[in-house]
Design brief:
This protein is of the alpha/beta class and 380 residues long. It is built from 14 helices and 13 strands.
C-alpha cells in the first residue's frame, strides 16, 4: 500500500509505557517523529523524575497513570488499570495508540478495543517473566493470547521473539513484524580511541545487577581470567533492582568488591566516559529484546562479547564486531575473554570499526523511528 506521510498528520496519537523513565530513555525518537509529522501527541505513563523530557517536547501532553505498577500481581488493581486506560483513551479521542511493555501491551490493548481505537504493541523484550517458568509465565502468556486478537500489529525487537510468539499461537501471520530495537543516537555515541587509557585491558559490564543479565557469569569469568593474567580489570556499572526477583543481594556485591574481583562504579547516568576507557563491553545476558548497551558500545567503536541468545545474537556480527558465547557458561565466557586479550591492538580497533559500521547501518534512532512510523501508518 503506497500511502503518503501526509495521511497520518494531525492524528491524535498516544504513546504508552510503564514509566516515564522508559519514555525518556528509549522512546523519544518515536515521540519526535510523530511530532515532526504534525500529529497531536500524548504520552501516557506513571510520572517519575524523567518527566523532564517535556522540556524537549513542550507541545506533548503527559497523562499520568495511577494504577500501573509493573511489579504488582493484584488482579483487582489490573482491572482498575484497564478502566483507567479506557477512560483516558475515550476522553482524549485518540486515533491510534502505541503501547510499550507488558502491562500496556495487554491491558492497554484490551481498553483500546473496548474504546474502539486501533492500537499497535511493541514487545521490547521477554525478560524475567518469560525466562523463568512458573505461574506468572503461564498467566502472562494467557493474557497475551487474549489481547493479541485486539492488536492491529505487534512489533518485536528481534526475530526470535516474533518466532516464539508465533510458536505459542499468540501472533498469527501478518500481525507480527520484527525491527532491530529502539534505536540509538549515533551522534551522541561517537567512536573513541580504544585501549590508550590503561596499561591494563578493561572488560566492562553495564546494566542492572540481575542474574538474568549474566552478572554472576561475568564475575566468575573475571575470577578465571585474573588467575591467569595480571594486566586485566573488570568493571561493573549499574544498580541493584530491588523490585526484581532476579536481582543479586547487596552482600554478594560487597563480597565481589572486597575480594577485588571487580571494580564497581555504581549507577552512572552518562556511561560514555567509562565506555571510552573500556577495551571491551561484556553482556552475558540470558535473553534480550535488542540489548541497548551492546548497540551503544558498538556505536562508540567498542568490541562486544555477548551471548548466543535471542536479541543478543542479532546485535553483533560474530567474530567481526565481537564474540558470541554460550549462555550461563562462565567457562565459555572466559575463553572468549582470553581470546580477546590475545588480539593485537590493530585487531581490536578493526573489531570496533566493524561494530560502528553495523550500528550506522541498522540501529540509528531515526531509522528505527521511521520503521515504527511506517507500521503505524499502515494501521491508520
Amino acid at each position: 500500500m503506497d500511502l503518503s506521510c501526509a495521511e497520518i498528520t494531525k492524528k491524535r496519537i498516544a504513546i504508552v509505557a510503564n514509566s516515564t523513565w522508559n519514555i525518556y530513555n528509549f522512546r523519544l525518537n518515536v515521540v519526535k517523529k510523530f511530532v515532526e509529522m504534525g500529529n497531536i501527541v500524548f504520552v501516557i505513563a506513571p510520572v517519575d523524575e524523567y518527566i523532564s523530557y517535556k522540556e524537549q517536547f513542550p507541545g506533548v501532553k503527559h497523562i499520568p497513570l495511577r494504577y500501573l505498577d509493573r511489579d504488582a500481581k493484584n488482579p483487582i488493581k489490573d482491572l482498575l488499570l484497564i478502566e483507567e486506560f479506557r477512560r483516558k483513551y475515550k476522553r482524549l479521542k485518540l486515533d491510534l495508540i502505541l503501547h510499550y511493555t507488558h502491562k500496556p501491551n495487554i491491558y492497554g490493548t484490551i481498553a483500546a478495543r473496548i474504546s474502539g481505537i486501533p492500537s499497535v504493541s511493541v514487545v521490547t523484550g521477554l525478560g524475567y517473566t518469560f525466562i523463568n517458568k512458573g505461574l506468572v509465565n503461564s498467566v502472562t502468556k494467557m493474557l497475551y493470547r487474549i489481547s493479541s486478537s485486539f492488536h492491529k500489529k505487534i512489533i518485536f525487537e528481534n526475530q526470535d521473539d516474533l518466532a516464539f510468539f508465533k510458536e505459542l499461537n499468540i501472533v498469527r501471520n501478518g500481525e507480527g513484524v520484527a525491527i532491530k530495537g529502539c534505536g540509538v543516537d549515533l551522534q551522541h555515541y561517537q567512536p573513541s580511541s580504544n585501549g590508550i587509557f590503561h596499561d591494563k585491558i578493561v572488560f566492562t559490564f553495564i546494566g542492572r545487577l540481575l542474574k538474568d543479565k549474566g552478572i554472576r557469569e561475568f564475575v566468575r569469568a573475571a575470577e578465571l581470567i585474573k588467575s591467569k593474567y595480571d594486566n586485566v580489570e573488570f568493571w561493573v556499572i549499574g544498580e541493584l533492582d530491588e523490585g526484581n526477583p532476579s536481582t543479586i543481594s547487596s552482600e554478594t556485591l560487597a563480597n565481589w568488591v572486597n575480594e577485588d574481583i571487580i571494580d564497581y562504579h555504581g549507577f552512572v547516568k552518562d556511561i560514555r566516559p567509562l565506555v571510552k576507557k573500556s577495551n571491551c563491553i561484556v553482556l552475558p545476558s540470558y535473553r534480550e529484546g535488542m540489548p541497548r548497551i551492546v548497540i551503544e558500545a558498538q556505536a562508540m567503536g567498542k568490541p562486544v562479547i555477548t551471548t548466543d541468545v535471542p536479541g543478543c545474537r542479532e546485535s553483533i556480527e560474530p567474530n567481526k564486531s565481537g564474540y558470541l558465547v554460550d549462555v550461563k557458561s562462565a567457562e565459555g565466557l572466559s575463553i572468549a575473554l582470553d581470546k580477546f586479550i590475545k588480539l593485537s591492538k590493530e585487531q581490536r580497533l578493526k573489531m570496533g570499526l566493524k561494530g560502528r559500521q553495523k550500528a550506522e547501518a541498522e540501529f540509528g534512532q531515526d531509522h528505527i523511528a521511521e520503521q515504527i512510523y511506517t507500521i503505524c501508518l499502515s494501521v491508520l
